[in-house]
Design a protein that fits this description.
The chain is an alpha+beta fold. The protein folds into 2 domains: 2-191 and 290-384, no CATH class; 194-286, no CATH class. It is built from 7 helices and 27 strands. The protein has helices at 42-50, 100-111, 130-137, 219-227, 289-305, 326-332, 336-345, and strands spanning 2-9, 13-14, 27-33, 55-60, 64-66, 69-71, 74-81, 86-93, 116-123, 146-151, 163-165, 168-170, 173-180, 184-191, 194-207, 210-214, 217-218, 243-246, 256-258, 260-264, 269-272, 281-287, 318-325, 351-358, 360-363, 371-373, 377-384. The strands form 4 sheets. Strands 15, 16, 17, 18, 19, 20, 21 and 22 form an 8-stranded antiparallel beta sheet that branches. Strands 2-1-7-3-4-11-12 form a 7-stranded mixed beta sheet, covered by helices on one side. Strand 25 and strand 26 (371-373) form a beta hairpin. The termini are close together.
Length: 385
């Protein structure tokens, strides 16, 4: 596969004199964009006018990853022309959380084929119920292909997210790309690096992604007690203190991280990107700065390991799509680029890294079906062989 990456920077323009001549039916144009490009779509339309035959997919972000660096007010673009892989681009509408499961089903049904090896999914980050979307994506009765991706971001504003489908922007669509090949190696990795603290509490009342009570006490009230002065900054400050939830009835209770995206003062409830089931246990989490950065490196190692690379692959180009949670960026602050550097260092030298800061990450834990994560660094890697 042949690949070129480049950027559009506000007030500066494109950092290439001309777009790489890689247009074809087997070309992917991947765009991660600052939210304000909703009001300035001309650069995205320029890409579509040049890459008339390519499959174009992308979304808004809470920070654009380009190489080892993080940008705002930019477009992070990579163009990949595959030699031995066929691509198919599809979409499904999501107007509210109730549409999420059906949207996931429509995506996999449209893409289903015997030689489907991987699906990459981008969704709006506010209207979707991430759990239902993932369950719909996993509903394919046959052997499910590797599914990865993320939920679009809007900085720390949580007001307006959108996706890109062949140059058109929408706030109501999940977009997905199917990869069909016997010659494409796809890897994945997802790591957190957060510490659990405080008592374990039981979720005693919840509805889907809305948490009302912990140990029969108002969830928002308890949360504010832990946040202290930072409670005034909710929901943004909630990104710094996610919840670790576990199904205690399971033989092996695998913790899943959930992040707040909204609050309701009237009902004293917390609103999450995905389900927080009644009966689960819940504990607060806080960051360990060094572990967050190390975990990004571990995610890169995991993504490389799952590709089963051989010595013959050492000269091939690799694409790494890195998707990290906006909460990690808010917490790490000026140290955030240490995370993207750490991820890239774990990958082969011939790797091109692009990505974005998100409202949710999609990937298997280690193996098996896709899951929705919060507060992780999640990588998907591609290499033709």
């Amino acid at each position: 596969m042949k690949m070129e990456s480049f950027q559009f920077i506000e007030n500066t323009g494109w950092n290439v004199k001309k777009f790489p001549a890689l247009d074809s039916e087997q070309t992917l144009v991947l765009i991660f964009a600052a939210p304000h490009f909703w009001h300035n779509q001309q650069p995205i339309h320029e890409l579509r006018q040049f890459y008339k035959h390519a499959k174009m997919i992308g979304c808004s972000s809470a920070g654009e990853i380009f190489g080892s660096h993080i940008y705002d007010k930019s477009l992070s673009v990579v163009v990949v022309r595959f030699e031995r892989t066929t691509l198919k681009l599809v979409k499904a509408e999501v107007h509210d959380g109730e549409d999420s499961f059906a949207a996931g089903q429509r995506i996999t049904r449209q893409l289903h084929n015997d030689d489907l090896c991987s699906i990459f999914v981008l969704s709006g980050g506010l209207k979707v119920n991430g759990t239902d979307l993932v369950n719909g994506l996993n509903s394919m009765s046959d052997s499910t292909p590797l599914i990865t991706g993320g939920l679009a971001g809007d900085g720390s504003d949580f007001l307006h997210t959108w996706t890109i489908f062949n140059g058109e922007l929408s706030t109501d669509e999940v977009v997905a790309l199917g990869f069909y090949s016997k010659h494409l190696k796809v890897g994945h990795g997802s790591k957190g690096g957060w510490d659990i603290f405080g008592p374990s509490r039981r979720i005693t009342r919840s509805t889907r992604n809305i948490l009302y009570e912990l140990d029969h006490q108002p969830a928002l009230l308890l949360y504010k007690e832990y946040l202290g002065e930072r409670a005034k900054e909710l929901p943004a400050s909630g990104l710094l203190y996610p919840l670790s939830i576990s199904d205690m009835s399971a033989e092996v209770a695998e913790p899943i991280v959930r992040t707040i995206v909204g609050i309701d003062e009237k009902s004293q409830s917390l609103i999450f990107t995905s389900d927080v089931p009644t009966g689960y246990s819940a504990q607060l989490m806080r960051a360990n700065f060094d572990r967050l950065i190390v975990s990004a490196n571990e995610a890169g190692e995991q993504a490389t390991d799952t590709m089963f690379l051989s010595k013959n692959d050492s000269g091939n180009s690799m694409l790494a799509i890195s998707i990290s949670c906006v909460g990690r960026r808010l917490l790490l602050g000026e140290r955030t680029e240490e995370e993207t550097e750490s991820a890239l260092e774990a990958l082969p030298e011939n790797t091109t890294q692009v990505g974005f800061y998100s409202y949710g990450e999609l990937s298997p834990l280690v193996q098996g079906n896709c899951k929705l994560h919060n507060q992780t660094m999640t990588l998907t890697t591609y290499m033709e062989c």
